[in-house]
Give the backbone structure.
Amino acid sequence: MKAGLAALTLAFLRLRKIRGLKGSLMLALTSDEELYSRGCERLISLGLLKGVDASLSAEPTGLKRLEAGRRGRVVFRVEFPRGKANPVVKAASFIMALEGMHLKRGARISAMAVESWLDADGSPGLCRVAVDRLMVPSETFEGVLAEVGRVAGRFHGKASFHPRPTPYMQPYRLKAGEPIVKALREACHEILGFKPKLTLGPTAGDENYLAVRCGIPTVAYGPEGGNIHRPGEYVELESVVRAANVYVAASIKFLSSRLG
């Protein structure tokens, strides 16, 4: 993402010198994008995103991929109270059952954390499991909650939404004919000689808020790199410059309505 911001900054410096564009550009650098998106949430609450026609996120997609949508994400709290059976054992059986669930292609589910509390007699009185669920377009929060709830019910558990400071993120997918999608693909073809493949982002982020809550068509496109979030993380510097060139060309096309 740092390389993407460098590419965006370079593109903005170049675009400042171009005259005749029909519109304006805004560069928003937000915090907490990979956790609760509190930075983007603040922009929304202040009304600073009203009137925005399209958005580009500089995620490190690689130059041959254009993310025209994102998976959604929700975390559930599943609780198993004390009963005839040990609640920890019931929770373990539930986690194993999650592994056998049949999900839509691209969706994922996994147990994130397990906690238990002891009663006065030293026996487990409650076991709680946090369940992470990545959603694909067409899935809803209520639908996946009911899905997890049915599995939990087999082991006398109850599922609910895990509390968080900002709303959960719904999935979305843009059509290939969306102006911002066309602008990026045509810019890539013009600058790099090919049109990137349309894909769905692997997880949720600020893009979901922009596209779903604000109604702003949002795509993600950025430099090449590797070892993301791991030691030895790197970016290919030439791809940063190439991405910036694509951003400039796409902005000109979008703001001058010169789309094929």
Remarks:
- The chain has two domains: 2-70+171-256, 72-161.
- The chain is about 35% helix and 25% strand.
- Helices lie at 2-15, 38-45, 87-99, 141-153, 179-192, 206-213, 237-256.
- The chain has a mean pLDDT of 95.
